Amino acid sequence: MEQTLHPEWQLPLPLITNTDSPQQVYPIDSLPNIIKEAITTYQQYGQQPTPLIACSALANISLACQSLANVARDHLLVSPISLYFLVVAQSGERKSGVDKTFGAGIRNW
Question: Which of 65, 64, 66, 37 is nearest to 53 (CA)?
């Protein structure tokens, strides 16, 4: 059975890219300055890839904002706003270090 995409949809991007192809640059300039500065400052310190740091920062911001608004898909399905992240990285790439830093405020609260 052949699947067709909605005419306005683009093909999905693979989660794992081919290492022979040029990597896309993370769109850090699209973020608000306060978030961008936190990510770039931590990247200079920890040396982790910018997308890894940005995911942690955005995931923790999303968690902190969940109590501020709900999304109603219809009159019965109402839930807190949220984002979902999937980080694919090798062991030793210091994922936990980034998450501990950006999640410290939430854990302390």
Answer: 37
Is 46 within a domain? yes
Measured distance CA(27)–CA(29) in Å, rounded: 5
Query: What does the alpha-carbon distance between residue 13 and residue 32 come to, in Å, rounded to a whole number?
Result: 25
Query: Alpha-carbon distance 10 to 24, whole Å?
Result: 17
Domains identified in the chain, total number: 1
> 49 and 95 in contact (C-beta within 8 Å)?
no
pTM of the entire predicted model: 0.72
Per-residue pLDDT, averaged over 63-75, amounts to 90
Residue 37 CA to residue 43 CA, distance in Å, equals 10
User: 14 lies in a domain?
Assistant: no
